Amino acid sequence: MVWYIVRRLLQVIPVFFGATLLIYFMVFALPGDPIIALGGDRGLNPAVADALRAEYNLDKPFIVQYLIFVGGIFVGDFGTSFSGQPVSDILARTFPVTLRLALLAVTIETVLGILIGLFSGLRKGKLFDSSALVVSLLFISVPIFVTAFVAQYIFGVKLGIARTTVGAGAPWEDLILPAVVLASVSFAYIVRLTRTSVIENLNEDFVRTATAKGLSRPRVIRVHILRNSMIPVVTYIGTDFGLLMVGATVTEGIFNVPGVGNTLYQAIIRSEGPTVVSFVTVMVIIYLVANLLIDVLYGFLDPRIRYAK
Amino acid sequence: MRFNRIGTAIAGIGMVTALALTGCATGEAATENGAGSAVITTNGSEPQNPLIPTATNETGGGKILDNIFAGLVYYEADGSPQNDLAESIETEDAQNYTITIKSDATFTNGDPVTAKSFVDAWQYGALLSNGQLSSYFFESIEGFSYDEDSELTGLAVVDDTTFTVKLKQPESDFPLRLGYSAFFPLPEVAFEDIDAFGENPIGNGPYMLDGEGAWQHNVKIDLVVNPDYEGGREAQNGGLEITFYASQEAAYADLQSGNLDVLDAVPDNALATFEDEFGDRAINQPAAVFQSFTIPERLAHFEGEEGKLRRAAISMAINREEITDVIFEGSRTPATDFTSPVIDGYSDSLDGAEVLEFNPDEAVKLWAEADAISPWDGQFSLGYNSDGGHEAWVDAVSNQIKNTLGIDAVGAPYPTFAEIRTLVTERTIQTPFRTGWQADYPALANFLGPIYFTGAGSNDGDYSSEEFDSLYKEGLAQTDPEAGNELFQQAQTVLLTDLPAIPLWYSNVTGGYSENVDNVEFGWNSVPIYSEITKG
Predict the structure, then answer these.
(1) Residue A29 shares a structural domain with residue A104
(2) Is B1 in contact with A41 (Cβ distance < 8 A)?
(3) In this structure, are A83 and A113 located in the same domain?
């Protein structure tokens, strides 16, 4: 197990260099000169533009820019944004916010999704099951920005029971509404995944054996059905956490959450190489770690994976 | 020019990061201290540059700077300048100015504001190697150079409260410019560490930062009243909390729910309804923003006499009324000149302005005349940046041109603002393209010189007309504003004939405010006059 984890961690190194180089190149290759855009509709004086280009190393060839950037990372310098802030500060400010939002969303979708999925599976074909299927289909089909606007309008503007936008410091209670919105789609998938696995496992021999042994119904459900049904669900949740860290842009925009998605979008628009690449790098690492954790979790859910070479 | 990135570069869902208000808790606590001490909450956007007056050229930072600094003059809602720190600004020839300032003003760190505070700040802003985005504001002062580091030799400190300015040539609108942020004074401490200063600026305006770190990046900035400010903009409230919003939609939702007091940007999806929803508290008035598209002479079929005919035909093929009503829900005002209705000297009845009216018959006739010179071939495409919400009107304009003139006309989207501006700057764009202008200061000349004067910095279409140039220069040399405006209007009649840019419409400022605040008035530059707003 230890070696397995170490091996997975070592994989991070080539992925890190591969991803940063690729992203840096893509930002570099974006059409248009970011410095010229700083001038707005009024053109920028060429000499001022040159001075700014030199300040951000934009006058150097691609590979030199990249090496300066990567070299900086190893001494803890992630470069500066056009507004003169160290990118490391921006990272430190935005990632915790998105992390909290993602954790909240994952918690909501996991708890609700598994519970409802389990009951649906156990009561296959009944009213509860059919309703759950309809509701989950609804959440899957409606685009997230619609869900977000509707939720914001109903709970924030009309009922006034939630903040329309997230307050300074992004307190937990303000994050609940955006987290629910974010969770809604994945919640629906988890319901369906859990339901299907539960139904499959209900007919398995080991469930029949456990029941025949005289185990109580709750114990059969908890230990034998649920545990075995969790493998595909956990995989999904792991990937989803990574996606939430990266893909909350739309929701963050609508609820004005000062998180990663928003900041990254802005940085891409401005072609701020160092900011974009730093963000993506951290995201890559989060994604890798999340996937590693999932693989380790498998071991606990299914001992066969743990002992396999 | 101070540009609005939300307007010119980005639209739609998800933009900058930002955060909402601390809201009720703060607001109520402050109200208890009595009227006049409540904090006004309002929308803003993360400043794109450090908060140094000459480094800021966009609205997000400009809104903050205008409130924490006081310049020689400030502008009333109608754009007329009032002395702020200036005791007097005198000239006899529109070229040599003697400026006297009030003697008792101080920066919020206690340092006095002297003539030297202005001269040093201007020298800093103008110096090429300092890379200041607004350095061009000093180009008319003697000694300014775009090619090398050069001292502004036209500036001289006479004594603590007096300094003189010598311009390269007479420019009568120079005093009008002095309320723009680039001309604000700086305390000496600024030059010791300009980066640190840009993060925690020390000003002399009606407001000041609420301590170190009051600027929470991407979230908000808190301003409190500066008790030592004694100019005409004394704050009638307890301070400003400017929240930076990722999207206009989020800010609008906060206004609807009462979390926000004043909003100066209504999102497109609410334009049709916001006036019904806010009634008297809705704002929709023309702004000092001129929208157009430019057809450079270097493009085939657009040079010389043929080009003139074709430009006029295209202009007359566009139904501006219809587009401003249908697509913009009345949040634009059809253009009748090259400036803006909020500027002194604006006219809706210039000679030749009929070229801006929808007239399909005349358009077809002119187009045929042009075809007689050289037959039209190919496609008319109009370049725009698709990250700026321009698609709808570009498509409408293209369709109208297509239907009226019977030619193939389409929009040509470029993904980003940076891309199209680069192509425009490098003169490699091979199609007509959209252009816009937001005034720096309320003067006709500011809409004309920088864009249409031969060789000017924003003359994207490389327009050149001796007649226009001489009328413009003559206008600048007048010391009587009336006489000056007369000449600027004449200069515009030249533009109406040549149409170096096709005027489309003026943007309106759209906004609204909550029931908690009173005395909300928007200035000539579309920004609410915050110091006058009362709450509670």
Answers:
(1) no
(2) yes
(3) no
Q: Are residues A72 and A108 in the same domain?
A: no
Nearest to A104 by CA among A255, A281, A288: A255
ipTM score = 0.83
pLDDT digits (tens, 9 = 90+) for A134-187: 999 999 999 988 999 999 999 988 898 888 888 777 888 889 999 999 999 899
Instruction: Provide mean pLDDT across the span B310-324.
Output: 96
Give the CB-side neighbour count of residue B404, counting CA atoms within 13 A: 26
How many domains does chain A contain in total?
2
Are A122 and A49 in a shared domain? no
Inspect the interface and report whether the beta carbons of B1 and A152 lie closer than 8 Å: no
The whole-angstrom distance between B319's CA and the closest CA on chain A is 25
Residues A132 and A182 in one domain: yes
Q: A28 with A126, same domain?
A: no
Determine, for residues B249 and A262 on separate chains, whether the beta-carbon distance falls below 8 Å: no
The residue range of the domain holding A67 is 16-87
How far B245 CA sits from the closest chain A CA (Å)?
A: 6
Is the pLDDT score of B26 beyond 50? no
Facing A157 at nearest CB: one of B14, B48, B256? B256
| Crossing angle of the two packed helices A87-122 and A260-269, in degrees rounded to 10 | 130
Statement: the pTM of the whole predicted model exceeds 0.80: yes
| Interface contact B245-A261, CB threshold 8 A | no
Structural contact between residues A236 and A189, judged by C-beta atoms closer than 8 angstroms: yes
Let me know whether A72 and A206 are in one domain: no
One-letter amino acid at A166 equals V
A159 and A151 in contact (C-beta within 8 Å)?
no
